[in-house]
Every structure is written in structure tokens, then in C-alpha cells.
Amino acid sequence: MTLLLVGGGVWRATDQGVFRGAQGNAYTPWHDWREADGTPLALVKAGILAANPHNTQPWVFEVSEGRIVLYADRRRHLGNFDPYRREMYLGLGCALENMLQAAGPNGYAASLTVASGDLSLEQPYDGLVQVAELRLAPAPAMPNPLYAAIERRHTHRGPYRDTRLSAMQRDGLRAQVDGERVGIHLVDDPEVLARLGTVVVRATRAIIDDHAMVADSERWFRHSRREIEKYRDGTTLDAAGLSPVMTTLAKMLPRPDAETNHRYWLEATERVQVATAPAMGLILVDDLYDIQQTLAAGRNWQRLHLWATTQGLAMQPLNQPVERVDREAELGLEPAARRELAALLPGDPRRPTFAFRVGVAESPARPSPRRSVADTLVDGDIPSIGRAST
């Protein structure tokens, strides 16, 4: 019986990837992303390593010698978690920023044109829509420290040290945000930080009480190694910020139901992520559902995270309050989340589209799985949809 139990435990551990961690084909894009250096494909290899909501990777690329077109893959959506596709477009903005950071080191000058218009509830649930176009011209290769940080940038969901940001770090973060209609609001005053943390936790509770949001979130959770290798996307235990012991235990146990899984998320949000955050921030826009501003906000988040990586800082989205803003608007509910966020910004007419924490992590972060570049390419027969403006 003992041999059977031990053998069963070893089989379970092997099947769940307990001994492998964040390794395997699903993680290859983090290691081979420089193999196409000096070609347009190098920019796409950088693009697929960008931050994105729930690791849905909602992008498709059309590549030619002097042109890359980015499309939104509307099948890879979060449903009731992102009814306006605002977070999808934030992730697409992150991919654009990685590609733009990759242009100079690969010998290109890039000019960007992005789609215009407004995000709405009437968007289809499938098909592709053109989001942006990069025109590439040959140029002398230029080194770029943010480009070098792409493979080291990972979302860190574990505990952060009790170390305040220095004035130089705060100024450096603010300096990464540019654009006439995008701003940043950093918070490290203990009283205001506690208020923002309360807003995040309250929004998380509201999400786990919303069965439709929980269901649409849960379908992107990959519990087993087989799921990770099959889909190469979604959230995983390896990237959850758990200690090595807790990660091992969680992998050995059967997959929890959706409600239990999200209660774990609430506990981690309240007891670890908010409780240990030395600083938090909000990315602000004039219009929450303007496509160009949303893409710009995503670009700014990616640039913030890359710069923070070069400084030894960890970052994590804590975007639950804005997700509740979208959900309340979709259902026609009282705008409780919107009012709570507005109360944190007295006198500022801009609206938060992204919330995050930043600090020094206690341990390294692990990567999330990624689909291969080949899985994200099209042959160029997709019609352009919508207007575009520079």
C-alpha cells in the first residue's frame, strides 16, 4: 500500500509538472525571442511577451518586410470580466510598446498608426479587427535598455518587502508616462495607500460575488501541466506568487472549483498583495472607452513595467476596481466603484483605467506561458476594419 501511495504521488507530481515549474514548450518564447534579430519577426517575438489581461494573448499579426499589422483576436476575450474589451485593448497596447522598443535594436525606425473610435458593448465575440499598423524603415541599430528587459519582465503576485520607493524611483516611474491624454497618479502615503487598498479589496469581493465574472475568469485558469502545454495561455499556479511549498501543494491537490479558486484570490489580494504594497498607482485617461487612449494607456503600462524591471522593482496589476466600473456600467448598476476611484482623485477630471502596485519583491517572479509566434500570424488576407488615424 505504501508503494502504491508513493507511486501515485510521484505520478501525480510528474503529471502536474511539480518538478518542472515554469518550463517546457509553453515557455520557449521567453528564451528564443532573439533568434529572429534584425528582421520584422523580431518585433513580433517581442510583442508576444507583453503584459495582457489574464494572459489571454488577444493578438494576431500580419508581417511583411516593411510592415506589421496588429489585429485584435476577439475570440480571446474575458466576457463579463471585460464587457467593453477595454482590458483587451490595454493588452494590445502593451504588445505595441514591446514592438516599438524592439524596433531600434533591430535596425528599424517605426512609425505607428492606430485605430480610432470607441469601445462598446456591441462588439462581436469572434473575428479579427485591425488595431494598429507599424511601418518599418531601415535605420542604424540602436541599443535600448528597455528592450533588453523584455525577457525579464514578469508580473509578480507575491509579497513585496517593506521598503519605500526612493524619490528617484518615483520620479523615474512618472517619467515613463507620456502623452497628452494619459497620466499617472502614484500613491505611497500610508493613509491614502490604505484607502486605495480598501477599494481594491472591496472590488475583488464584488467580483467573486458575481457568478458570471467568476465563470469568465475561471475558463482562463490552467491548473495542470497538460492544460498549460495544450493552450499555452491563461493564469497558472507557477505565476500566482505562492511560495515554493504552497505551489507544490496546490499542484498536488485536485483543481478547486471556481468559487474556491477565487476565494483564494481574494485572500491573496487582501493579505499579501495589498498588505505588502509599499506603493500603488493609477494610470489615468480622459475617456475610459476611447480606443486610442486605451492603447496609449497599455503602452504606458508596458513601458512602466519594463523600466521598473531595469531598476530591480516588481509590479503587478490590481485592476479590480476598474473591472467593476465596466461591469456596473454594463448592468446599469449604481456606479459604486467609479465613485470610490473618483474620491481618490479630488479635483482631477481624468478617470483611472489601470491600477497597480510596485515595490521590491521578496523572491523572483516566474513567467507565464506563451503561444508561439507561428500561432499568432496570418497570411495577410484580412480586410482592414474601422478608421485609422496617426
Number of strands: 11
**Overall domain count:** 2
In CATH, the homologous superfamily of the largest domain goes by the name NADH Oxidase
Give the topology string: H per helix, E per strand.
HHEEHEEHHEHHEHEHHEHEHHEE
Explain what the structure shows:
The chain has 390 residues and is an alpha+beta fold. It folds into two domains: 2-150 and 371-389, NADH Oxidase (3-Layer(aba) Sandwich), CATH 3.40.109; 154-359, NADH Oxidase (3-Layer(aba) Sandwich). Helix content is 39%, strand content 16%. The chain is built from 13 helices and eleven strands. Strands 1-2-4-3-11 form a five-stranded antiparallel β-sheet, covered by helices on one side. A four-stranded antiparallel β-sheet has the order 5-8-10-9, sandwiched between helices. It has a two-stranded parallel sheet with strand order 6-7. β1 and β2 (67-73) form a beta hairpin. The longest helix is centred in the C-terminal third of the chain and has 20 residues, at 291-310. The radius of gyration is 20 Å and the shape is globular. Mean pLDDT is 92; it is low at 1-13 and 383-390.
